[in-house]
């Protein structure tokens, strides 16, 4: 799905009343993200991201969710409170595809922050 299609799909899902529409925005989540396109000064809408957790004992990343930023550049509801557990997490932001959709090159092909959650 292209990054231009994702916002349209989310809007359609909200209109249809799907519970998963809008990246679970109606459910409170302890983990969210907000992406701004500093080149345009606007929210980065339609940016694909993947949330993963490092799983023991083999120390491999398990993808938990793939989503797209909404019209406000936010991606609420990445995990519900019951899905969060202590561990190491990372978000993969597909910046290369985001810029390619806009006819530009990306200096960073992706951005991948990781963090430890202790409680």
Q: Keywords, please?
A:
alpha+beta, 3 helices, Immunoglobulin-like, 6 strands, four-stranded antiparallel β-sheet, 119 residues, two-stranded antiparallel ribbon, globular
Give an overview of the whole structure:
By secondary structure, the chain is α+β, with helices and mostly antiparallel strands. It has one domain (31-117): Immunoglobulin-like (Sandwich). It contains three helices and six strands. It has helices spanning 5-16, 21-24, 95-101, and strands at residues 36-37, 42-43, 48-55, 60-68, 87-93, 114-117. The strands form two sheets. Strands 4-3-5-6 form a four-stranded antiparallel beta sheet, with helices on one face. A two-stranded antiparallel sheet has the order 1-2. The termini are far apart. Residues 16-26 have low confidence and may be disordered.
Strand content: 25-35%
Rg from C-alpha positions?
15 Å
Terminal Cα separation, in Å?
Answer: 35 Å
| Spatial order of the strands forming the largest sheet | 4-3-5-6
Order of helices and strands: HHEEEEEHE
Oligomer: single chain
Helix content: 10-25%
Number of strands: 6
* Average of per-residue pLDDT values: 84
CATH superfamily: Transthyretin/hydroxyisourate hydrolase domain
User: Which structural class is indicated by helix and strand composition?
Assistant: alpha+beta
Number of domains: 1
CATH class group: Mainly Beta
CATH fold name:
Immunoglobulin-like
The second-level CATH architecture is Sandwich
Biggest sheet layout: 4 strands, antiparallel
In terms of per-residue confidence, which ranges show pLDDT below 50 for 5 or more consecutive residues?
16-26
Q: Please count the helical segments.
A: 3
The coarse silhouette is globular
Protein name: Transthyretin
Keywords: Hormone, Hydrolase, Secreted, Thyroid hormone
Subcellular location: Secreted
Family: Belongs to the transthyretin family.
